[in-house]
Amino acid sequence: MDGTARKAAHDELLATDIEAYLHAHEHKSLLRFITCGSVDDGKSTLIGRLLYESKLVFEDHLAALEADSKKVGTQGGELDFALLVDGLAAEREQGITIDVAYRFFSTELRKFVVADTPGHEQYTRNMVTGASTADLAVILIDARKGVLTQTRRHSFLVSLLGIRRIVVAINKLDIVGYSQKVFDRIEADYRAFAAQIGLDDITCIPLSALRGDNIVELSPNTPWYTGPTLIHHLETVPLEDLAASKPFRMPVQIVNRPDLDFRGFSGRIVGGTVHPGMAVRVLPSGRTSTVARIVTFDGDLPEAVAGQSVTLTLADEIDISRGDVLAAAGDPPTVADQFEAHIIWMGEHEMLPGRPYLMKIGTRTVGLSVAQPKYRVDVNTLEHLAAKTLHLNEIGVCNINLDRPIAFDPYADNREMGGFIIIDRMTNSTVGAGLLHFALRRADNVHWQAIEVSKDAHSAMKGQRPAVVWFTGLSGAGKSAIANIVERKLHQQGRHTYLLDGDNVRHGLNKDLGFTDADRVENIRRVAEVAKLMVDAGLIVLVSFISPFRAERRLAREMMGEDEFIEVYVDTPLEVAEQRDVKGLYRKARSGQLKNFTGIDSPYEPPEHPEVHLDTTTWSAEQAADQIIEVLREYSRIP
Description:
alpha/beta; Rossmann fold; Elongation Factor Tu (Ef-tu), domain 3; 7-stranded antiparallel beta sheet
């Protein structure tokens, strides 16, 4: 049915049976798709044209569009449809899309949500955001330029994010005289590349978004093209409900307890179907029960499917919390705490392997650390490159470790159960996104060995309670000198101690590490692990490290028990530390001979709430040491 016939049928139903029309509109299927491509390929113009053709531009908007087209448009006074989408002033000034713009439109057959994503490489994270919920991708190619680096980049990203249906819109064909030869060459080039990344469901359409060719009606300017128009393809492309065909999954969002007589578990079903009497398993605990009721605001349901938000009640009283997953008892997801995953880094600052982050997957938030990447993907060439970290917009494959097990399905099987975001623990900002591949088998082979002689037994034998006294401050602040005096005084009292000094540890355990931010994080992670072992042995451990980042000092604190971590901020102004400079390090840093030196070209984040704050401009090292001894007594670490 062509556009004219569809409009006639639409108008007739609207005129004769308004209730039938409203019912049909309410029950239209919904297609979410994304537009992407290189800069200035015409993405915003195409979406503007779709909005215009679907009659979703009101008269006042159309008048504003006409005025804006004359004022800031790029089409010589003609309607510039891109202005319907490029809402940011910066976009209008530069003629580019910066943010992800979501737009809704509908036709007689289907409703649509389209994400217009940026073409610039530096906004890859925005493009990933738009693609994460899409069912189809429209990749625009400028007929004058052909397949470009950004075309390959965006095709790889949509493939990585699980989009399998691709429309290749070869746009601006009017500028090349509607040449079939140009169209055929670009189609062949794209299909050859797409085969390398596993894309095979591809529809190529010759377009002029500006002129409207092959948008709604087949254009007389391309008599050699016999395929569908863009609108017809979007209206008729099959929408397989893959989630509904998967095993039942529902992450619990709320434990619903309005009164003593009702206890239900609310959430959105992200896979499969559920019905009363069905056996379910709660993960990660593994407990089982059966579904008693499917409760909604409009009454109980006989069945619920993927995409619906419901409340389930169970036949048994079992412990279930937010973040747990209700799953089909006979086909549950895997539970693990170590994985391989694709990581898409979105933070302004580089990813720091070993740094503690947060991971949000479904309705659960857990602690996360990322190992050094196995490789970084050059999304322009698909090469696997060596990398120690990931920077903004880079993609890599990494092993990740969680602080507790989670239920998951691989992202390729279930987006909701395998996709996650990474959150910075200090700023609470989203710094990355990830796709789980599989659980690491080594997690199944490593078990905690029960040891009969406990930390308490070690401590009782030594007549003390163990602790970590963590000295932090700039180089030259006096950390090592004070720590050394503290250990001497404790030794004289018969206390059992050990001093971990930054320079000394770098001669052995950490001799393979440099002074980049990533290496500094790993340096502190290793030392914190060693300190934890020494605390388990009942020792008072003195740790003297610059340890410039709060996140890693917080990691060390969280490894220890209550009142076992005493942070000592050796506070010395930078100019005073430079005057001391007994090792000549500041002089080298100022002259450029020493890179990544804390306080000069690498940041230091002072403690916000240290247990001990020492001002070494007014305290001598001996006085400072005495103060720390007193604090150890206050914390009942020593008699």
